[in-house]
Amino acid sequence: MNKTAVIVEDEKHTAERLSGLISDLTSINVVAHISSVKAAMQWFGQNELPDVIFLDIHLGDGTGFDVLEFVEGYPYIIFTTAYDQYTLDAFQYNSVDYLLKPIKPKELAKAILKIDKIQPQSYGMAVDKARNQLEKKYKGRFLFKVGSKYQQVLAKDIAYFYSNDGLNYARKTTGENFVTDCTMDELEQVLDPTDFFRCNRGMIIRADNIKEIHTYFNGRLLLDCQPKFEYDEVLVSREKVKDFKNWLDG
């Protein structure tokens, strides 16, 4: 018996293209196109669970994770999403399958091959972990110790975080520096990835404080920051250049 699939996608042309690709590449029967969280609630409450759900992350009246509230059981979930590095990191870290829009036939075929190999309950737990990671709130302010006092600084007033001589610092847009106890890895997790990007091991920079971008040796990029960073050149490592460009272009 052929497997069944439901497409949850609020862009009609995207849903139609995906349905066509599924028909061309597989024997899976697409039984429904759903365009909203509200419609999903109704459909999943009245119909048998499909084998596969192609689930758009961003819908007009909510998110793909909202749809999962109405799904009982453990179908194979393949998320579809436009480029968003933070979302992709969450999916990759938790081994959750996704397709980047515009969806490529080769990537779709690769995802479909996994259907019979997954352990449904374990995969469901992985989806839950990715959801928890994506829905956590980012820090809007930091508390720094200055002498015998503490000073509160809003995240939007921080130009960048950097490492120097074994310590990590936050530099305000006004040029003031504050020592932070957070590691760079910890900061990367709590800062809003829409605003901040880790361009190398020792620097996390805010988009609004990048003054100029220059090409550099070995495929890297050289950044001019505001306020100026005086300790070293601010470089985007070669392996991060593509993600950096996508981040700024988002």
UniProtKB/TrEMBL annotation:
<dbReference type="Pfam" id="PF04397">
    <property type="entry name" value="LytTR"/>
</dbReference>
<feature type="domain" description="HTH LytTR-type">
    <location>
        <begin position="142"/>
        <end position="250"/>
    </location>
</feature>
<dbReference type="GO" id="GO:0003677">
    <property type="term" value="F:DNA binding"/>
</dbReference>
<dbReference type="InterPro" id="IPR007492">
    <property type="entry name" value="LytTR_DNA-bd_dom"/>
</dbReference>
<dbReference type="InterPro" id="IPR046947">
    <property type="entry name" value="LytR-like"/>
</dbReference>
<feature type="domain" description="Response regulatory">
    <location>
        <begin position="4"/>
        <end position="116"/>
    </location>
</feature>
<dbReference type="GO" id="GO:0000156">
    <property type="term" value="F:phosphorelay response regulator activity"/>
</dbReference>
<feature type="modified residue" description="4-aspartylphosphate">
    <location>
        <position position="56"/>
    </location>
</feature>
<dbReference type="InterPro" id="IPR011006">
    <property type="entry name" value="CheY-like_superfamily"/>
</dbReference>
<dbReference type="Pfam" id="PF00072">
    <property type="entry name" value="Response_reg"/>
</dbReference>
<dbReference type="InterPro" id="IPR001789">
    <property type="entry name" value="Sig_transdc_resp-reg_receiver"/>
</dbReference>
<protein>
    <submittedName>
        <fullName>Response regulator transcription factor</fullName>
    </submittedName>
</protein>
<keyword id="KW-0597">Phosphoprotein</keyword>
